[in-house]
Design goal:
The protein is mainly β and 403 residues long. It has three helices and 25 strands.
Length: 403
């Protein structure tokens, strides 16, 4: 019993000492919480002609915001409704209408926001514009079975070929034939097609009956030199762009036919010469384009092209199926869902543009469109699938400069 009492006294003493030691320790003081601070400065006013771009570049200083996400928003008020026109730090402002616009800029960092406004005056420049891309800048069709037509309508040289394409574009009904893979045409608008936030921007009108859709490239004339520089081209990443069947940086070379060589008929009646026009690609492929019974031997290759000519681009898989019990006389030809000329949906958002690495680019608008045939297919006696371009149109075009 005495031993038990001694242990109890010892335990009580230790608890008392520990308690006193704990009471003497300093209590740490929490660091005060500091919210981010945002400071925005930018010009109070800007002026620009309609359908021209003015860059608004604010200076932004943010403190106490390490690790806190920052977002930007530009908006204008039209008819009592705020319309978002951008979500990048810098705004490339462009408008089809003259007038005075109050442009609001909002910076958000965590739960803190800062707003700033500027005035943009869009001036009447007296110019008239059209909604269609009306000028052919460049045109080079790849081989196809109607090249002979050019011999009769003044297309016997590369230069006069441009006139043929321009005439077809001006007609509003005659298509510009691009030939098989790689054949292209470059068209220019007389104004910058605006990259309208949240909307489709332009439409590519094609003859879609048993034809190959066309890949679309776009260019904004950033340096205003009036030409589409090679470093300004970006591809519209459509529904097929990221598929495993898509081949990037594909290059194919077409060779002038040897007309002295005897034809090599095929097993089917329409296969007049299965070794008419040789081709090779950068993937190790080699083959021949077949002459059919619906064309002549000099139909497929331009006389001015020399011994060979080549095309480089993105090659897409286009499903085709022989539905004539192996006779090759009737074919079903597939298409793509969106993002190409001749696709199921050929309305295009400029925001789909990507650079050569596949990264999204931010363009205020576009001045040039390049379209080229996306596939390399033959469908029996019909010959090579080709893209046929009718027009390219600005979907949000405003003809009048009146508000």
């Amino acid at each position: 019993m005495k031993k038990y009492i001694n242990y109890t006294l010892l335990l009580s003493t230790l608890l008392f000492i520990c308690s006193c030691s704990s009471d003497d320790d300093p209590i740490p003081t929490p660091e005060p919480q500091t919210n981010p601070t945002i400071e925005v400065t930018m010009g109070s006013s800007f002026a620009v002609d309609r359908y021209n771009v003015i860059k608004i570049e604010p200076t932004i200083n943010i403190a106490n915001a390490e690790g806190v996400p920052v977002s930007y928003q530009w908006s204008i008020n039209e008819n009592g409704t705020d319309s978002i026109i951008g979500k990048e730090k810098t705004l490339a402002f462009i408008s089809p209408r003259n007038g005075a616009y109050t442009v609001d800029f909002t910076v958000t960092c965590g739960n803190i926001t800062q707003k700033k406004a500027t005035q943009v005056t869009v001036k009447t420049n007296g110019k008239t514009f059209t909604k269609q891309a009306g000028k052919v800048i460049d045109y080079l069709p790849a081989p196809f079975d109607l090249y002979w037509l050019f011999q009769y309508i003044g297309g016997e040289s590369r230069e006069t070929l441009l006139n043929v394409a321009q005439t077809n574009l001006d007609s509003g009904s005659e298509a510009i034939e691009l030939g098989t893979f790689g054949g292209y045409v470059v068209l220019q608008f007389d104004h910058t097609v605006i990259n309208t936030y949240g909307k489709r921007d332009f439409f590519v009108n094609c003859n879609n009956t048993n034809k190959s859709p066309a890949i679309i490239q776009v260019a904004y004339d950033a340096n205003k030199n009036g030409i589409a520089d090679e470093d300004e081209w970006y591809e519209i990443a459509g529904s097929e762009h990221h598929k495993s069947t898509t081949i990037k940086d594909y290059e194919i070379t077409y060779y002038e036919p040897d007309y002295s060589k005897d034809p090599v008929p095929g097993k089917l009646a329409w296969q007049v010469n299965t070794e008419l026009l040789k081709w090779s690609d950068n993937k190790g492929g080699v083959g021949y384009i077949t002459q059919t019974d619906r064309t002549s031997s000099d139909s497929y290759y331009p006389a001015w092209a020399g011994k060979s000519f080549s095309f480089t681009g993105t090659k897409l898989y286009l499903p085709t199926k022989d539905v004539s019990d192996g006779e090759g006389t009737k074919w079903n030809v597939g298409t793509y869902d969106w993002g190409y000329g001749g696709a199921k949906d050929s309305t295009i958002d400029i925001d789909w543009a990507v650079n050569k690495d596949g990264d999204k680019v931010n363009l205020p608008g576009i001045d040039f469109v390049r379209l080229y045939t996306s596939s390399f297919n033959e469908i029996g006696p019909e010959g090579l699938l080709t893209a046929k371009i009718l027009s390219v149109e600005d979907l949000n075009f405003v003809a009048s400069d009146k508000n």
